[in-house]
Predict the 3D structure of the following.
Amino acid sequence: MTNNNPIGVFDSGIGGTSIWTAIHQLLPNEKTIYLADTKNAPYGQKTKQEIVDLSKKNVDFLLDMGCKLIVIACNTATTNAIKELREQYTVPFIGIEPAIKPAATNSKTQTIGILATQGTLNSELFNKATEMYQDTKIIEQVGHGLVPLIENGDLNSPEMAQLLESYLRPMIEANIDYLVLGCSHYPYLIPQIKKILPEHIQIIDSGEAVAKQTQNVLREKIGFNNGPIDDPIFYTNGNPKVLSDILENKYKIEEKIF
Ligand code: DGL
């Protein structure tokens, strides 16, 4: 594996492109390969073992493509499988976890909200992370139904607006001043979320932090690409149009069975 090999990024579907975009903006000279496992989305309702097995399948695919580093652009896969992946593979992994720390540290009302999948909120990793913030009230909400709607391209449907209203209204009433988006699909809902939240509530996601961490790991352990730059490659086992649309139709999408 050399520094000129690509970075691999995977998610249960199209949501991890929010993380891929942050990485691509910070590291435009890196080659990247993105894998959307849409056929198996959502991961959020699956058992830990199913999430571990699906994650391994994705990692095997990316390693076959010669990836030098793998970014797990999925909170559910990170919080349920990163330990098992690190035990089995030697390639460095970067995971994504809900950004509880900046929200809890900066909250003035000492009340924050988190919207994430059931798999993430139930995970040991997430629950250990929240233990550190005993003084902060953390309102956890599972985003039931949001990922399937996003994977269908239904971001602006009345059903989406209703679900978001029902998840966010109790948080507003509880006086949160930070909302943590604990699923890489949810940054695509920020315009819809902003219609519901009062302006003083800040929305936090983890895209930039993951991109910076990717940069650090390349600098310290692997090295940056100093060869030619190829176009990013996107693979999906779902509907290529939805993935293309979320990327504003800027890139070619490869359909693949994996
Ligand atoms: N995008 C994923 C996450 O960050 C998972 C969504 C799902 O497949 O349930 O949690």
